[in-house]
Every structure is written in C-alpha cells, then in structure tokens.
Amino acid sequence: MVTNASIVLLGAYLVWYAAGWGDAWTRTVVTDVVYVPLSLSFTALAVRAACYRRLDAAVRRAWWVISAGFGCQLVAHTLWLIDEVVLHRHVYPSWADYWFLAFVPVMFAGLLLLPGANRRYRDRIRLALDVLTVGASAFMVFWYLVLGPIFATQRSDLITKLLTVALPVGDLVLVLAVSTVVLRRTTRAVQGPASVLAAAICAFVVADVSYIYIQLRGGFTGGAWPDLFWLAGCLLLVLAADRQYRWAEHREVRVERRVAGAAWLPYGAIVIAYGLLGVVAGAEGAYPFGGMVVGSIALTALVLLRQVYALKANEELAVTDPLTGLANRALVNERLATVTSQPIRAHKRTAVLLIDLDRFKPVNDAYGHEAGDAILVAVGSALLSSVRRKDTVGRLGGDEFAVILEDLPDQEAAEATAQRILDALRLPVVFGDHLLSVEASVGLAFRNTTKVDGDGLLHQADVAMYSAKRAGRGRYAVYAPELDGSARDAGLRRAIETGRMVLHYQPEFTLTDGRMTAIEALVRWDHPTHGLLMPEDFIDLADETGAIAQLGEWVLRTACQEALHFPCRVAVNVSARQLAQPDLVASVARVLNQTGLPGSRLTLELAEAALLPADQHLRTRLDGLRALGITLAVDDFGVGHAALNVLRHMPVSTVKLHGSLTAGVHTDPAAHDLTAALVAAGHAIGLTVVAEAAEHEEQVATLRAMGCDRAQGFALCPPLAHDELKERLAATAKT
C-alpha cells in the first residue's frame, strides 16, 4: 500500500513537473513537500524489514543500520523544507546539509553489513582490485566536475569549502560501497534489494554532483532538475525496503549469485575515465603531448578488449559442458534458481524435463567411449533442435540431460516438446560403419508452487523420469505427488508410527478333516484418503526405501500379541531384507519374550528367493530361529529359483505352493500333474505341503485327492479382521 502510494505520488509529481505548471516558487514548494512523505515511507518500510523475524539475523542487522541512514535522509529533507519554504532561508551549509552528510557513513556501514558469500583469499583480492578500479575512475570524474573547482575557488570560507568537499568525497565512499555490494556474490535474501539500493545510491550521486556544481556557479534552489534524480533515488529506496520485506515469503530459494553484468563494471569505469581524459585533453589543448594520450587510451582499450574476451571465454567455459557445448549442471542450477525465484503467472507455465538415455551403457561398453561420446553429442543436437532458442538445454552428467521451458501457454505445450524430443532421439546415430540406436525416458515436472526450489523441480522430474522407465522406457511421464517415493515412504513410516497399519488373518485348514491349524497375518494400510490398501500397493515401496524392516518388526510384534487370543499358530512373512539382518534371531526372541507368545506357536514364512545363496550365515540364522521353537516355511514356492534339493539341507518344515501352480489343478492336466509331482517331492524330503489361493471347491477337492496336506484361499475362508476372526472362532466353538 505504501509502495503504491509512493509510486502514484512521484508519478503525479513528474506529470506536474513536465507540464511546467506553477511559477518558480511553486515548483520549489511542491518539490520540497514531496520529499517528506517519500522519506517517511522508505524509513518506515526499512524499519519494518529490520523487525521482520522471518529474515535472517544478519540481514535484519544490516537493515537496522540502513534504517538509521534513511532516518538521516528524513531529517535532512524535513529541515530543508522548513528552511526553504517556512523560514525562506537560503544558507549554505545548512543543518539539512549536515544531515545529508551524516547519511553517508551510516549508509556505507549498512551496505557493507549486507551478508555476502564466503570468499577465498584470492577472490577477496580480486574484489578489492575491482572496487578500487571503479573508485579511481569515479575519483577522476569527481575531480573534474567538483573537487578541482572547489579547491580552485577563493570565495568560500574554510567550513563551507570543507563541507563542499565532504559531500563529493562521501559520494565517492558510497560508490565504493555500492561497487562492493554489486561485484561480490550475495545471497538471494539480499541480492534483489541490494541491486535496488545500488541504483538509488547512483541516482543520489548524480544529483549530489549536480547540486554542488550548481552551488559553485550561483546557488541551488528547490525544483531544479537535480531534484528529479533525488526523487527517483527516494522511490528506489522505498522499493528496496519493500522488496526486502517481501522476499521473506520466498526464503526457501537461497542461492549465491552475482548481479547480472557486474563483472563488466570495472571495465566500464575505465572506459568512462579515459573518455573523460580525452574530453579534457581536447578542451585544454593537451594534444601537443603528441600521440601519448591517444596511444595510452588505445593501448588500454586493447588490453581491456583482451581481458573482456578472456573473461567471456572463462565464463562460458565455467558454465558449458565441454563435450556437447550445452549448459552444464552449474548453469542449469543457476537458471533453475532464477526461474523459481520469480512469481507464478497465469498462462505462463514453467516446466523442467529430465532426459535419461535408455540402455546407453551396453552401447558404450560394446562400441567404446568414442561411440558413447558420439551419441551424447547427437543427443545434444537433437535436444537443441526440439526446443525454442530461449529454452535452456543442459547436460547434468553422464547420459542425463535437462531442459528448462519457460513462458509456456499450457501443459500441453510442454508435453508436445517432450514428445518431439522422444521422436528426435529415435533417429539412429552413425558411428563408423555402425548405426547406433538410442531412446530416452523423459520426466516432466511443472512449477505449480513457489514452495518448490530448483532442486525440488529436478527431483520431481527425476521421479517422473523413473516412472517412465518403469512403464516401459522410450516415453515421457508427468510428475504427480503419488509418484514420489520419498513422500510415499514418509507417509508409510508415519502410518506405521501412528497406527494406520492393520492386520487381517487368513486361516489355513487341513484337507483331511477341515481343521484350522494356523492363521497367516496379512498387513493392510488404512490410508486416510485411499482407503484400505493391499500389500501389493506398498510392499515394493517399503522394500525399496528400507521401510520394510520397520514394517516387518511391527507386523511380527502385533501378530504375536494378537495371536494370544487364538488357539492356533500364527504365520508371519519375513522379507529378504529382514532375513539378511545379523540380529534377526535376537530381534525375534525379544518380541517373543515381550509378548509372551511361545515360539512353538509362531511360523515364519520366508520368500523363496531369500534362501539363495544358501550360505553359512543364512543357515546359522535359520538354525537360531528353529532353536526358539519356531516353524519355518517357504512361501510362494515354485516360481523362483530355489530347488527342493536346496530345501532338503535347510531347517524348513513347510512349503507353500504359489497360487499360479495350483490355480488350474482341477481343469488343466499339465497343471495337475506338475502340482502333484511337487506335492510328492515335498513329502519325499519330509516337508508339509500347503496350497495357496484355493479359490474353488473343485480345486480343494482335487488338492485333497492328490494328497496335499493343507490349503488356504477364498474357497475355505477369506482374510478376516481381528474381531471378525474372533467371532468366527466363537461361532465355530458353539457348533
């Protein structure tokens, strides 16, 4: 509100000033009056920024000092208004001039207190040289325009002369401070406001030099053209203070960067200084010195051009991938930081594409690194041909590329670009006598919130890219929160900790007399938005992220506690990751002791693949579990790589045949014969055989006829919640 009012006030003044309304006295009064609300605005906004707790302490400390400098400006403009408009007094130097002078050291300190990046000793030396170069050039300009004439005049008394000298010297000091802020790397927290502060100081310097120049030649009155620069500087101070406060809303975006074009500042200062030298030489008739002045200027210009060329080459080298000529990771990160620091605009979408080549390593291994490099170069060219000139294309490393698309009209435009990239990459690459084929998987992420920074966008695109790979490669996928394994992993772990996981139990029956001999614990996720999720919806995620150990321990402990209410064994699945844990036996023993469940009432079901390789460490852990009285069973047998001969040497007593083997025993003769052979082989080595997924009565009858010991499935009993199972057992006991 204050900022908008300041802009409107200055805009109205400029219209009034340009129209030439009012006489000289009116222009003086209006100009002097406008300064006061502007000064009050930037002082109040600076104090607001200094008090804002969301800003870092170092930033707030700097803004407290800057606020004091702004206060000096407020006092000075108020005193000037009183002297010139109220008292009609034209005194030089006045009290207002002293307060203007006080602004210099305070503002100098505030600018230097703005936090910058940690710099190496070499960087600090280079910064000092650059700042001194700018300062020396500024001194030449100041000397020619004001300092020289001040010392040359004999009309002023000592105090007046000292103050007149102090003002341009103070401006020179501020030039040094501004150069330091602009040339050094600053955090995003202060980079934007510092740039606006620098522009304000530059406007003040121009106005101050003009003011002294006019004072030396007849006296200054309000309403003259230097006031336009002072007023512009005041508005810039308002904008700087407001911008510092508003930055805190986006404080998650923090990168170290340098003001764009700042590296050229010392060279620009030298050009200005030599330009001034040429003007003075022409005005004073200094050309009789021969070609020395012109030659010095020419030689310095050549050195500058050489340095500028070297600087540009070094900057390009620092941000360019040497193989493909694309932007490297550093430049991609910088562009992402810039993009994510900007406000989100309607109909101006920003998207990030992450491209990973499919099966690049086999080609690289088969044909050599030269072939791999040829593919990477061709991919870079294909990417450039598929996007606009304004888009950023970079290589992050290896065979991974990134594209930043800005100012898109809608999501469809980004998806169209992703499809063009896929089509372009399907063209074969010619390498010698070989045609090398390459495809890619592309992940696409959109910037939909200011809370996601550049790294977050890359992460989202990475999640989407791996989703495309899992879906079959050679395609693109758009990021959605449900694809994010880290978010789902965190949700899964929270569900375990907050009691959102529940156990259902599927009974297991003997096929001879139909007696229930065991119950298998089956975990479910009671998701707050998706309802009851089956294991296939989250077990793979838990295994990938390592949450399977936490989940497995919870299932074991809960099943052992609840099994105390049931008159039969409880079977609990053990993952391969759990089985590989050295402390597995001690962990299971601890759960049994804490819950009070006898080991003889617990069956641990092991995945078939987890038994390979059958090394001594695995055998030791299995023997330890058996020593606790626990029964060991092999789950989902018949679809993995383990053989009955391996089981013969393991301390397991039960095999559970996978449902894909038993599904067709009552209709498919081949399935019947295979299952019967496995049942017989299991019995031959002393194992109890359990059939899974018995879904039909005919299936159960066939399994019973071939001698299978036990079965479980919907034909016998579906999985039941804890209370449902208790009710079923109670009803069975009554009958």
Description:
59% of the residues lie in helices and 14% in strands. The strands form four sheets. An eight-stranded mixed barrel has the order 10-11-13-14-15-16-17-18, surrounded by five helices. A hairpin with a 2-residue loop joins strand 4 and strand 5 (400-408). It has 735 residues and is an alpha/beta fold. It has 26 helices and 19 strands. The radius of gyration is 40 Å and the shape is elongated. The model is unreliable at 251-260 and 286-293 (pLDDT under 50). Pfam families: EAL, GGDEF. This is Diguanylate cyclase (GGDEF)-like protein. The chain crosses the membrane at residues 34-51, 63-82, 98-115, 127-146, 158-183, 195-214, 220-241, 262-281.
List the helices and strands and how they pair.
Layout: H1 2-19, H2 24-51, H3 57-86, H4 95-113, H5 121-152, H6 158-183, E1 186-187, H7 188-216, H8 226-247, E2 256-257, H9 265-284, H10 292-318, H11 329-340, E3 349-358, H12 360-367, H13 369-386, E4 392-397, E5 400-408, H14 411-425, E6 429-431, E7 434-436, E8 439-446, H15 454-470, E9 476-478, H16 485-497, E10 501-510, E11 516-527, E12 531-533, H17 539-545, H18 547-563, E13 569-574, H19 576-579, H20 584-595, E14 602-607, H21 616-627, E15 631-637, H22 644-648, E16 654-657, H23 659-662, H24 669-684, E17 688-691, H25 697-705, E18 710-711, E19 720-721, H26 722-734
Parallel strand pairs: 8-9, 11-13, 13-14, 14-15, 15-16, 16-17, 17-18
Antiparallel strand pairs: 1-2, 3-5, 3-8, 4-5, 6-7, 10-11, 10-18, 10-19, 11-12
